[in-house]
Amino acid sequence: MTIDQAIQQSAMLQKKIHALRHASGLIFYDGATTAPEGAAAGRGETLGVLGSMEYELLINPETEKLLHFLQENKGELSPQQARETEILTREYEKISKIPQDEFVAFQVLINEAQDVWHKAKRNNDYPSFAPYIEKISTALRKFAAYFNPDEKPYNVWLDQYERGLNMDKLDSFFGKLKEAIVPLIKKIQDKGSIIDDSFLNQEFPVDKQRILSDYLMEVMCIDRRYCAIGETEHPFTINFNNKDVRITTKYHTDKMTNSMYSVIHEGGHALYELHTGDELQFTCLAGGISMGIHESQSRLFENFIGRSKPFISMIYPKLLELFPEQLKNISPHQFYLAVNKSVPSLIRIEADELTYCLHIMVRYEIEKMLLEGSVDVDKLPEVWAGLMKDYLGVDVPDDTHGVLQDSHWSGGSMGYFPSYAIGTAYAAQILHRMKQDINVEDIIESGNLKPIVDWLTENIYKYGSLMDPDELLYKCCNEPFDPTYYIDYLVGKFSAIYDL
Amino acid sequence: MTIDQAIQQSAMLQKKIHALRHASGLIFYDGATTAPEGAAAGRGETLGVLGSMEYELLINPETEKLLHFLQENKGELSPQQARETEILTREYEKISKIPQDEFVAFQVLINEAQDVWHKAKRNNDYPSFAPYIEKISTALRKFAAYFNPDEKPYNVWLDQYERGLNMDKLDSFFGKLKEAIVPLIKKIQDKGSIIDDSFLNQEFPVDKQRILSDYLMEVMCIDRRYCAIGETEHPFTINFNNKDVRITTKYHTDKMTNSMYSVIHEGGHALYELHTGDELQFTCLAGGISMGIHESQSRLFENFIGRSKPFISMIYPKLLELFPEQLKNISPHQFYLAVNKSVPSLIRIEADELTYCLHIMVRYEIEKMLLEGSVDVDKLPEVWAGLMKDYLGVDVPDDTHGVLQDSHWSGGSMGYFPSYAIGTAYAAQILHRMKQDINVEDIIESGNLKPIVDWLTENIYKYGSLMDPDELLYKCCNEPFDPTYYIDYLVGKFSAIYDL
């Protein structure tokens, strides 16, 4: 094999893997948007076959030989080719370490678990789901030992979702965060209810909300030639390449801001994907590098920009035009306060900006226990309720609104939640850095966010998966991750809002 | 290899091919319905890779060995397994006979040709497209010689689209048809315009037309759990399995019957796919056997049922309810006459039931010449205009409304058109046979077509691709194909309508 042949073979392998993922991704997206309800079984059949074809493409002696050859001849590769080889090798080593029968058994387990979880959540029936939590955490411990027998299982999984992340870093991060925001939340609660957001609970017609979605995407400079918007039960973003990204939202007639902020959030994910480099397309480096960095982009737009004063004052004329009756006596400042009202609550995805991270901490504490094997899964509802009371001061009425609320564990993901919080803290640090280059507030007020998108393209988006998250953040900010920016932001913003 | 291993390997091969086709089909469907407009290039990339993966799955020494082994041990296979082997072997033999570089070159040629054709049609610029017709017909002659060097090229291609079909059969079929309907059309023209269909050219709101689509699908007993309807430029049906079929339509506010009859037509295709046997799913036998048989089902519903008196009288109350203003002075009989008005016209897809087959004959005559190499492609517009004048008596004003109107040739299909006509004639014969078992008119008037769907399931649908078209038709009708039923139907129906 010559080096040119190997490079060509690697490119073809990546194109095939990309094509299978494009296909699987579209089948999933179609299932959530357009497919008839009875199509699930046939979709599952095809997804299973495409998944095993992907496995077979990657895990075989020929690919192993190819990757060895490319690594031995690293010196002759371009930086991009070297990085492709590195990422492919990581995937190869990860997946090939799991015996195929265990890999397949885990897919079957997860398929079942998701079904059981859906029913359990609907029926507030935690006991039916508990055995699956047990089996899933046992399998994840076992896989972690295959990946890296010298490391604690939870650290192995944290690193899978956010390379470089571990419990030491998270304990320190969450410790500082808790120290700063728990007293802040207490002060807000002591102050009593000073923000009226009841006007948000009127009827907002869906056709007008759809116009608002288009307007928000326009403000965010999302190129609609390459980004469609659909409607699903839970909003999400999916990308096939940098010229084909889909976001979704859900419209509630009685809560317009749910969809408004989900569009801005998913729009942030979309901007990242739409601006990854052309030269990375159809390789394993196309697309955002990690969940944490991705979340930094969605939450940067959703909260740091979308819930800022200049953003509200800029879009308010459009809101008034669309909803003149609903907002007739409401000032931009009242709207700003309403979308920033902080009230500890039970459900993570409905949490406000300030209390959101406490929800993540609850899951973090429980995941640590599960992957240490130090908790009896039958006791999880109690543990959950205890932590929610400790961190947020709320009483959990039932498991549907408690331990059963999220889908992640049933999907086999443990170690994924913390990146929601880390990503938000990345966003604060990135924004701080951005403000040294451009006048962010003026840009937002102008109603055309292009200079912000351009800055992010130059410093984050265009790199796709060329760098690991910590490297990318360092390159962007000229310093390592520092949660101070996030803490300062939260304390500053909410002290001002609540006049503390 | 044991026979059990071979059977398993064959089943897995078919599942993989099915999964790749499901994926490619959905990517195509999404492109026509939901995808952002700029997504075409990335979609093309993935479709190319999936296509080559399908080629590699089928054409390789291992598959060749497997198919040989299965054929040698045919005695140990179930009838279904034997048929699967037969169909796979046919495909293997067909594709493997074309040298891979010529196969790829043809895909590239077609890709280009389709693009050139789109522009040529838009700009009425036949000369830009002529070289592609030349290259495509040359390639198709060459491929035909690979498939079967002892047969005339056009016969080889006719057989590819409708197994068992050839020019002798078609010459006889079209000859009889022409003999019967050309004088009929003449008589109708001599009689002058006695049918007023001007009321169809009013404004029919799209939201009401959507309700009508749902109603039509309900009447046809299409199970909506397994069949979604979308909107596209050109209506089509696509199926992924018998629990996931999609039909599309296009709504014109000024011509409600266009969408109405496209929904009934595509609904006929959908019913076929929805009722193929469960045991055939994820094998190469899932789905309808041929274009001709498929068209027999769509046109059976569209014309023989949907344009019949009992159908119009049954749905008329719904039409009046949806369009009270537009139809207020119109009787069911006037509506019946309007949707059956026969006027020779330029555009095939807008042709009425009586003149439709003459359009097919024009293409048939030209395809014969092209695959014999007996026509100068630069002269095709003249040849076209001459045949249109001969057969339909119309003058062709330009190539956009003439030789450039259809997409088939640019897509590399020659030999496909005749199955539209043959399929319609199959439908007449199938309907004649059905009427011996059930009272079709009474069933239609009842507004619930289930007994018709059940009869078709039992006699056509459930068999999927288990039998070749001529066998299936024989089994259903107890006699070979006979165009008399179709000719009698047309003469009877239109003589009555025009009181000849």
Write the layout of secondary structure elements.
Two copies of one chain form a homodimer.
Chain A: H1 3-33, H2 40-58, H3 61-72, H4 79-97, H5 100-123, H6 126-147, H7 153-161, H8 167-191, H9 206-219, E1 227-231, E2 237-241, E3 244-249, H10 256-274, H11 291-305, H12 309-322, H13 332-338, H14 356-372, H15 380-392, H16 418-437, H17 440-446, H18 450-459, H19 469-477, H20 484-497
Parallel strand pairs in A: 1-3
Antiparallel strand pairs in A: 2-3
Helix pairs in contact in A: 1-2, 1-3, 3-4, 5-6, 6-7, 8-14, 8-20, 9-10, 9-12, 10-11, 11-16, 12-13, 12-17, 14-15, 16-20
Can you give a write-up of this model?
Two copies of one chain form a homodimer. With 500 residues, the first copy, chain A, is mainly α. Chain A is built from 20 helices and three strands. Chain A has a domain at 1-97. Helices cover 64% and strands 3% of the residues of chain A. Chain A has a three-stranded mixed beta sheet, sandwiched between helices. In chain A, a hairpin with a 2-residue loop joins strand 2 and strand 3 (244-249). In chain A, helix 9 (206-219) runs parallel beside helix 10, helix 12 (309-322) crosses helix 13 (332-338) and helix 16 packs across helix 20. The radius of gyration of chain A is 23 Å and the shape is globular. Chains A and B meet through helix 1, helix 2, strand 1 and strand 3 of A and helix 1, helix 2, strand 1 and strand 3 of B.
